Amino acid sequence: TTIKYESNGGYCQVDIIDNQGRMIKNLLSKDCPKGCFEVACDLEGFADGVFYVRLQNGPIQQVKSMVKVRG
User: Fold this and answer.
1) pLDDT (tens digit, 9 = 90+) per residue, 7-19?
2) What is the pTM of this model?
3) What mean pLDDT is reported for the chain?
4) First-to-last C-alpha distance (Å) of the chain
5) Do 39 and 30 meet the contact criterion of CB atoms below 8 Å apart?
6) How far is CA 37 from the centre of its chain?
């Protein structure tokens, strides 16, 4: 799975969170220039279900849901 995100420049973080609110995977944690980017997400080994992607760029944070349907 590929997750697309947009940076306004500065520190970016992309995390995968399970349905109990625990961070299970950090996909990205670095300074990014302004622009659009992609990061790969592999949830092999995790059960099927709902996961959340937390996208943070400086003080701005978004949470989006995604569903894993087969492993």
Assistant:
1) 999 999 999 999 9
2) 0.89
3) 94
4) 12
5) no
6) 12
